[in-house]
Amino acid sequence: MITKLIPRKVFFTSGVGTHPENLESFEVALRDAGIEKFNLVTVSSILPPECEIVSRKEGLEELSPGEIVFCVMSRISSNEPRRTLSTSVGCALPQSINRHGYISEYHAYGETAQDVGEHSEKLARSMYSTWTNESPLRTLSFPRSSSVDEHGNWMTVISAAVFTI
């Protein structure tokens, strides 16, 4: 029997990590987001039909260390002192639970969390509307922003929509 990999639930999370090494700043950001224990596979932008949005806590309880986990992730890194890094995932919820919605990812240098949040919602809304010719039921975003320290350590900022099967 073939089982389809269609997520039943999604949760949203974000993290910031700083470290002298770029890769380790990403690891610290994953820890801050609570998703460092998983083998993350990034996917594109579809929110499956009937996919329930749950809290980070509830979503994490369904996952096991080492599990292959699908996510839509926005990621940005820099070691330029005092540079602002921002990420966001936006979500457009469908008018009908039986249809799919959209998740967008967006990142930028020098923009605020509010700016990237609004932009990621706009992207998700546009992707949904061009497919359905209607407005989504609602949109939401999960932005995160931080600035690189003055010593030039690497910083990574992430925002993610994490799926559970």
UniProtKB/TrEMBL annotation:
<feature type="site" description="Cleavage (non-hydrolytic)">
    <location>
        <begin position="44"/>
        <end position="45"/>
    </location>
</feature>
<protein>
    <recommendedName>
        <fullName>Pyruvoyl-dependent arginine decarboxylase</fullName>
        <ecNumber>4.1.1.19</ecNumber>
    </recommendedName>
</protein>
<dbReference type="GO" id="GO:0006527">
    <property type="term" value="P:L-arginine catabolic process"/>
</dbReference>
<dbReference type="Pfam" id="PF01862">
    <property type="entry name" value="PvlArgDC"/>
</dbReference>
<keyword id="KW-0210">Decarboxylase</keyword>
<dbReference type="InterPro" id="IPR016105">
    <property type="entry name" value="Pyr-dep_his/arg-deCO2ase_sand"/>
</dbReference>
<dbReference type="GO" id="GO:0008792">
    <property type="term" value="F:arginine decarboxylase activity"/>
</dbReference>
<dbReference type="InterPro" id="IPR016104">
    <property type="entry name" value="Pyr-dep_his/arg-deCO2ase"/>
</dbReference>
<dbReference type="InterPro" id="IPR002724">
    <property type="entry name" value="Pyruvoyl-dep_arg_deCO2ase"/>
</dbReference>
<keyword id="KW-0456">Lyase</keyword>
<keyword id="KW-0670">Pyruvate</keyword>
<feature type="modified residue" description="Pyruvic acid (Ser)">
    <location>
        <position position="45"/>
    </location>
</feature>
<comment type="similarity">
    <text>Belongs to the PdaD family.</text>
</comment>
